[in-house]
Amino acid sequence: MTESLQAVHTFTGLPWWALIPLTTVTLRTVWTLPLAVLQRKRIQKQSELRPLVSAMSPVLKLNLAKKVQAAKRKAQKSLETSSSNGSNSDSTETFAALQSPLASMKYEEVLVLSTKETRKRQKALFKKNNVQLWKNMILPAFQVPLWVSMSLTMRDLSGWTSWDSLPNKPLDEALYSEGLFWFTDLTSFDQLHVFPLLVGITALCNVEWTFKTLELSRLTMKKRLRPTLTDAISNLSRMTVVFMMAISLNAPSALTLYWLSSQMYSLVQNVILDLTLPISFTPRKRFNYKESKSANARPVINTHS
Questions:
Q1: In this structure, are residues 28 and 150 in contact, taking their beta carbons and an 8 Å threshold?
Q2: What's the longest Cα–Cα distance across the chain?
Q3: Which of 38-49 are b and which e, b meaning 16 or more Cβ less than 10 Å from the residue's Cβ?
Q4: What's the pTM?
Q5: Tens digit of pLDDT for each residue in 88-102?
Q6: How many CA atoms does the CB half-sphere of 166 hold within 13 Å?
Q7: At 209, phi and psi to the nearest 5?
Q8: DSSP 269-296
């Protein structure tokens, strides 16, 4: 990819400060944007099916609890009958009733089995509608290698091979002078630390926007003082932003310019997708809840005719 990018630079004659963002936008639009749109439509369909899956859980739990209670009543009745009659046949039936898995099942086991059955039916339902959960990993599987390969390309072009203060030896000497404004030398780090700050702010906005979208798409109220897997991933993402900012302080401007371009593209893409292809909420609810209500809406609770 390094040679290809150098060939594009030679052919177009564009300065590096313009070619790097333009290459980022082009690759993301051609490589990952179609996958992002397909994934958003897939998640929309999954969100439409999740209420049906949520409705299955209490029904399955109730049915299993009824079977457990019936098995326990049968075992108790068989035990009483056997103790009163004392016959061998009744003892055999009583032993079989007592050994039934349902008769000895506890409440925690009912929850576990009903949860497994709900997941099994959700998997079958998603497969029937061609929106399996594993397909949500297709976009990261394409996006992460692109980000890594472009980062390595920018590092190789700028000659950044160490953390010390030795001057870089770029593959293309035009990087020394084809910067802009305060970052004329794209092989050195940003001495004003503007790029690291912008990278951190943009990445943090991207993280907060994404996880706010996930919160708005929740079907149930989030319980206080009970962190979820989403909370853990969001905190890990915030720590990653800090780590990226720390690296950006010593990274060449060419690399931080690519990171900034990629983060800005992701943020704009996520905002546009949330406004045009919302998952399961009104887009304006994110900004103004009152405006998300219809002017002709009427209350349905505590109404008086």
A1: no
A2: 102
A3: ebbebbbebbeb
A4: 0.70
A5: 444 554 444 445 566
A6: 9
A7: -65, -45
A8: HHHHHHHHS-SSS-GGGGT-TGGGS-TT
